[in-house]
């Protein structure tokens, strides 16, 4: 069941109401290709010093999820996990309506945009992507874990100079996302300078 359309509220209301929704609470339908491209267009609106676009995305769907499941199982086995735990890892790629890999392309020698500035753009991009998904009635969550450092998994997604950040799981939320962490009041993280 799709959540009430949050776009009926204000834009800021939409941003304030986004909470991550994990894979076990996501069902079909997954975002369609045109919706995925709108989310990607939102990601491209992230602040980007020197316009480097230090990221790209790769959608994993249909039979490709089986291939990813194989890679997850292999990564777990390589990490010394038991066959039962490796099978659990394999299962993590299955039953998700859509996975979108986030791949960073950081130019470590750029004369203008520093490495940390480029990583901030990657973060802004995936945040905009998830906010757009939420505004369109979908749920999602950014995930990483040790698997992103597994050589066979990295090699499957990355070309030279690229790094695998992780995956956004996406789909129709079966339940509304809820806050995971206690957050401070906004006034605690916004102050005047110099302090009074
Ligand atoms: C790059 C990145 C990787 C993350 N990896 C994981 C992960 O592997 N497992 C996890 O439970 N949360 C992970 N998170 C955090 C969740 O995506 C989510 O932001 C967090 O649970 C807080 O929920 P919220 O988005 O509703 O505030 C990651 C976040 C980022 C930005």
From TrEMBL:
The keyword Flavoprotein applies. It is an enzyme of class 1 (oxidoreductase). Pfam families: Nitroreductase. It comes from the Bacteria. Residues 17-171 form the Nitroreductase domain. Its cofactor is FMN. Residues 176-196 are annotated as: Disordered. PANTHER family: NAD(P)H NITROREDUCTASE YDJA-RELATED. Belongs to the nitroreductase family. This is Putative NAD(P)H nitroreductase. It comes from Hydrogenophaga laconesensis.
């Amino acid at each position: 069941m799709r959540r009430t359309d949050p776009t009926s509220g204000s834009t800021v209301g939409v941003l304030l109401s986004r909470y991550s929704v994990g894979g076990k609470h996501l069902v079909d339908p997954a975002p369609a290709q045109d919706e995925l491209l709108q989310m990607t267009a939102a990601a491209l609106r992230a602040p980007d010093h020197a316009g480097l676009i230090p990221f790209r995305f790769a959608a994993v769907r249909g039979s490709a999820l089986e291939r990813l499941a194989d890679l997850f199982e292999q990564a777990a086995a390589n990490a010394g996990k038991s066959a039962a735990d490796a099978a659990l890892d394999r299962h993590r790629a299955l039953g998700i309506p859509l996975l979108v890999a986030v791949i960073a392309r950081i130019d470590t020698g750029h004369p203008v945009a520093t490495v940390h500035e480029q990583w901030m753009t990657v973060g802004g991009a995936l945040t905009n992507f998830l906010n757009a998904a939420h505004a369109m009635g979908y749920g999602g969550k950014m995930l990483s874990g040790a698997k992103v450092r597994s050589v066979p998994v990295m090699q499957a997604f990355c070309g030279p100079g690229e790094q695998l950040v992780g995956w956004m799981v996406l789909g129709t939320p079966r339940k509304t996302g809820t806050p995971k962490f206690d957050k401070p009041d906004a006034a605690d993280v916004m102050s005047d300078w110099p302090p009074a």
